[in-house]
Specification:
The structure holds two protein chains of two kinds. By secondary structure, chain A is mainly α. In chain A, 77% of the residues lie in helices and 0% in strands. Chain A has helices at 2-9, 13-23, 28-55, 58-65, 70-106, 118-125, 134-162. Classes of the chains: A mainly alpha, B mainly alpha.
Chain lengths: 168, 318
């Protein structure tokens, strides 16, 4: 399974999502589906790496020797210890998804016309900067950037807060 | 020391997986493209059934899917991506041959900018930790990550091309035309490199061998260049593959905004025309370039860092 994930991982995420959107009908649900089909892989790799690393720790061996079974070790040690990186990755995935949606809308593969996303707004505004209506682009651009900024900073902060080794 | 035989076996194994990955990409895109309801000629409007049948036969679309797949695989192995569905005179190969050098130029230039300035920002930030150069570089880095490249591109066009008239845009003629798109494309990877280099440098500077180097009386510049930067560079090499993927996907939009006749532009046009051979062909070329690069990085990495133990048989390389 991981080998399969490695193979998929070598294909750029955005390329896969674009290909999916060519096939699926435009709309919010298909975008979510397309992103999830390829988006689970980085998370799976992260959790796998984390668990492989945790497994070799002394306290896990100690727990096994003291008679803990697999489910107990999983519940009491593995899951709490992987929660940190999972949360951090989660906050950093949100800006990636926003960026991907904006890109899709920009290519005309995003949400269809009556609905609007910040991506479609910037895409529509592209023609109007030549006429001098720069503010039409500026407002959705600032909103996208601020949201991505906020999630990135939150992710960084969480990373520092949840990793005791980085605390100084 | 890594034995030559082990190294060779490792390389071969990695190569095998690179080929398998490429095959998976081809198969996957083929399946995706052929599960589309409707047919690629739907946009042409109503046509007599005889014409439609002839078109189907001409492009081999009347054969069973498995035969089509087999034929396609055979053609791709011979670097033949077939005819474009939209213009009968130009094949996908022509498109790729025309667009690839342009995209390569743009991508390479962006990557060089990203690596050069990213490393400088990262190193300066780590050496002046918690002083203004550190804050300045990290502000640049966080802006680079937060502002999507198409927004940066339009802002650059608005000021540098329309308002102040410094750089020409909207074609691909002289070197001046390449500056703005390269900057727009390089911002995100630049920010990634700067942040990673800063963390990596801070970690290396805290190591004992840096203390040793200082203690034996090496000059500060010598310590930084010979010991710190060299070791701090290793994580940067690992993310080169991801950064290239970033530049490749970024170029779809950048090329479209700036009107550059590259592969990204061709890919986007292929999507809006539903020109499946073009989409398939460019996806395969993009993936092949990436897989090749990741392969080179993996091999180079084991050669550069002696601490990485190569076990050709057990962990399949990663």
């Amino acid at each position: 399974m991981m080998r399969f994930a490695e193979v998929i991982y070598a294909i750029p995420y955005l390329l896969m999502v674009i290909l999916m959107m060519v096939v699926l009908k435009p709309g919010i649900l298909p975008i979510i589906i397309a992103m999830s089909i390829t988006g689970w892989i980085p998370m799976a790799r992260l959790v796998r790496g984390q668990v492989l690393q945790l497994k070799e720790n002394e306290y896990i061996h100690a727990a096994t020797i003291s008679g803990a079974n697999t489910s107990w070790t999983l519940r009491k040690h593995m899951i709490p210890n992987t929660m940190g990186p999972i949360l951090v990755n989660l906050t950093l995935t949100v800006p990636t998804a926003i960026f991907a949606e904006a890109t899709l809308s920009f290519l005309g593969l995003g949400v269809p016309a009556p609905q609007a996303s910040w991506g479609t707004l910037t895409s529509d505004a592209l023609g109007s900067i030549l006429v001098g209506n720069f503010y039409q682009l500026l407002i959705p651009a600032i909103l996208i950037s601020l949201t991505m900024f906020a999630f990135n900073v939150a992710g960084d902060g969480l990373q520092d807060a949840l990793d005791p080794k980085l605390r100084k | 020391m890594i034995g030559v035989i082990t190294m060779l076996r490792y390389t071969l194994n990695r190569f095998k997986w690179a080929i398998i990955t490429l095959w998976a990409v081809i198969t996957l895109t083929f399946i995706i493209m052929h599960t589309i309801p409707g047919n690629p000629f739907a946009k042409e409007g109503a046509m007599p059934p005889a014409v439609y049948e002839n078109l189907q036969v001409h492009y081999g679309l009347d054969k069973p899917l498995l035969t089509q797949y087999g034929n396609y695989l055979l053609e791709v192995v011979q670097f033949d991506f077939g005819p474009s569905l939209k213009s009968s005179s130009i094949s996908v190969n022509d498109y790729i041959l025309k667009g690839f050098p342009v995209s390569l130029h743009l991508g390479a230039q962006a990557l060089v900018i990203a690596i050069f300035f990213g490393l400088i920002l990262g190193v300066v930030a780590s050496l002046k930790r918690n002083k203004w150069p550190d804050y300045l570089s990290m502000v640049i880095a966080i802006v680079g990550i937060s502002v999507p490249n198409f927004i940066l591109a339009t802002i650059l066009i608005n000021y540098f091309a329309i308002q102040w008239n410094i750089f020409p845009v909207a074609t691909w003629a002289t070197w001046q035309h390449t500056i703005l798109p390269s900057i727009a494309l390089s911002m995100m990877p630049l920010a990634f490199i700067a942040r990673l280099m800063r963390t990596s440098m801070l970690e290396v500077m805290g190591q004992d061998y840096i203390l040793t180097a200082k203690a034996k009386g090496l000059k500060r510049s010598g310590v930084i260049i010979k010991h710190a930067i060299r070791n701090a560079l290793l994580p940067i090499i690992t993310i080169l593959g991801i950064l290239t993927a970033n530049i490749v996907t970024g170029s779809f939009i950048i090329e479209r905004i700036f009107g550059i006749p590259g592969m990204g532009d061709m890919f986007v046009k292929g999507i809006s025309n539903r020109d499946y051979p073009v989409i398939l062909g460019s996806t395969i070329v993009y993936s092949a370039v990436l897989i090749l690069l990741i392969f080179i990085v993996d091999i180079a990495y084991t050669l550069i860092d002696p601490r990485i133990k190569v076990t050709g048989r057990r962990n399949n390389g990663r």
